[in-house]
């Protein structure tokens, strides 16, 4: 369940090291009802307690404005979430969490010294360069594969909305994410 939530959040815009979300994709992403998707999964309250603040910080980092300044907040939130997950082993499979967040773990732990060493340069150039790369990807990848649209469509699906209002059911949600999987498969081939 947690992996699906993090996957959807990742597909919405978390890439490699930071949330890479150019204005064109950001406009399209505004149509995604993230809270509806989360509620439709039927995650236990203990999961929400751990991941909701982290999800919020992920979204805050997606604007590609002052991204390097969001880095410390995102990493602090990630570490707090990790501690919460580890403190609730009966609620969440921490192995799934670790796999789903391995990229963020990498930049917040192993790559931290490199980010700190290059903080000034990253602060100066990261957002512009990342936006340029993402605009190119938008034209070649999402323009063809429609990932953002597929996530938005699923988030507004009447059955997903009903699940969200009635406690959620991850198995039923999995039956509705075919378009997202198709778009993800398309992205893999376009990026190669």
Question: Can you describe what's shown?
Answer:
With 192 residues, the protein is mostly helical. The chain has one domain (2-191). It has 13 helices and 2 strands. The protein has helices at 2-13, 23-29, 34-40, 45-61, 67-87, 94-100, 102-108, 112-117, 119-145, 147-155, 158-165, 170-174, 178-191; strands at residues 14-15, 18-19. A hairpin with a 2-residue loop joins strand 1 and strand 2 (18-19). The longest helix is centred in the C-terminal third of the chain and has 27 residues, at 119-145. The protein is globular, with a radius of gyration of 17 Å. The two termini are 28 Å apart. Keywords: Signal. Residues 45-147 form the Chondroitin proteoglycan domain.
Main sheet makeup:
2 strands, antiparallel
How many DSSP-defined strands? 2
Structural class: mainly alpha
Number of helices: 13
Strand content: under 5%
Helix and strand sequence: HEEHHHHHHHHHHHH
Strand order of the largest sheet: 1-2
- The shape, in one word, is globular
Instruction: Report helical residue fraction.
Output: over 70%
- Point out poorly predicted stretches: 1-5, 7-27
- Structurally, how many domains make up the residues? 1
Summarize model confidence as the mean pLDDT.
75
Keywords: Signal
Pfam families: CPG4
Domain Chondroitin proteoglycan: 45-147
InterPro entries: CPG4 (IPR029153), CPG4-like (IPR053123)
């Amino acid at each position: 369940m947690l992996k699906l939530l993090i996957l959807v959040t990742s597909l919405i815009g978390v890439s490699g090291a930071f949330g890479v979300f150019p204005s064109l994709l950001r406009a399209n992403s505004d149509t995604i009802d993230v809270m509806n998707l989360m509620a439709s999964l039927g995650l236990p309250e203990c999961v929400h307690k751990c991941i909701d603040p982290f999800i919020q910080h992920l979204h805050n980092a997606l604007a590609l404005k002052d991204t390097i300044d969001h880095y410390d907040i995102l990493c602090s939130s990630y570490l707090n979430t990790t501690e919460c997950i580890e403190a609730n082993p009966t609620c969440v499979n921490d192995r799934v969490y670790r796999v789903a967040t391995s990229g963020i773990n990498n930049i917040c732990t192993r790559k931290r010294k490199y980010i700190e060493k290059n903080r000034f340069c990253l602060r100066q150039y990261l957002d512009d360069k990342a936006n340029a790369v993402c605009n190119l990807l938008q034209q070649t990848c999402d323009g063809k594969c429609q990932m953002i649209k597929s996530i938005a469509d699923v988030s507004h699906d009447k059955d997903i909305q009903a699940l969200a209002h009635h406690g959620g059911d991850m198995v039923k949600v999995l039956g509705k994410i075919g378009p997202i999987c198709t778009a993800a498969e398309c992205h893999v081939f376009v990026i190669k």
